[in-house]
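Morning, I've got a small favour to ask if you have a moment. I've dropped the whole record in just underneath, so have a look.
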Amino acid sequence: MTGAHLFGLAGAALVGCGVYGLLTAPGALGRILGFNILGGGVFLMFGVVARRGAGAGFGADPVPQAMVITGIVVAFCATALAAALLVRLTAVQAEAARDGEREKET
């Protein structure tokens, strides 16, 4: 088993774990984490595919490697945005619950 096979299997395992997390997570944070794990597996598998030419004696293709690096940056930004929206949603729901309790008291 070569390193490329090992990394490919690790990427497939990460994709499987990410899909499982997306389907079974009860909360939004769990789904965000599952999506991140899924993305990490896809990036790993794409990197393995980009590196396959080096095994035949050719240089690795830089375009897929650049796309993986760009995808990692975009995934990080999307995760930060999703986490910020989740924090804001939690704050708004807590505020609405407090307002509902105040209305019940009056």
